[in-house]
Amino acid sequence: MEEKIAFETIGKKIEELESRISKLEILIAAQPPKLTQKKLSLREFVLSKKPNTEAQVGLLIGYYLEHFEGKTSFTAKDISDGFRLAKEPVPANVSDIIFKNAKKAFIDETKEKTGGIKSWTLTNSGIQEIEGGGNPSKPK
Question: Is residue 98 part of a domain?
């Protein structure tokens, strides 16, 4: 008699667990899986564009700062720090890199300064140079 009660109790518990599992399976099936995409690192971005010159790397860093980091402008220090983050040799004269990109109208000086330092922003030409695909110096 006691065995029969024990089996009935076990049977009820199994039914309860099966019911709970069914409800959980329905909830899981109703929710789309959450896919998290790893953020593209500055190094990965620079390497994907295969730049040939320091000026090209500097332009890519400026683009990355604006489009991936959400900055509205960048400074020479930001570019210098970007070279470090991209694990690229930091040029002796980062200002020269900025000048070369400004001369090609890829970047332009902003009116406001960041911490008393000149700030720069990409121009449409600079954005098109990069988004055109491949190496930023090659014609599209």
Answer: yes
Question: 122: part of which helix (H) or strand (E)?
Answer: strand 120-122
Residues 84, 124, 101, CA angle at the centre, nearest 5°? 45
- Regions of the chain where pLDDT drops below 50: 134, 138-140
In angstroms, rounded to a whole number, what is the distance separating the alpha carbons of residues 50 and 48? 6
Residue 93's domain spans which residues? 42-131
Could you read off the pLDDT of 56-77 as tens digits, one per residue? 999 999 999 999 999 999 999 9
Q: pTM (2 decimals)?
A: 0.69
**Domain holding 66: CATH number?**
1.10.10.10
Q: What is the CA radius of gyration of the chain?
A: 28
The total of structural domains in the chain comes to 1
Asked if the structure places residue 136 within a domain, the reply is no
- 48 Cβ partners below 8 Å, 6+ apart? none
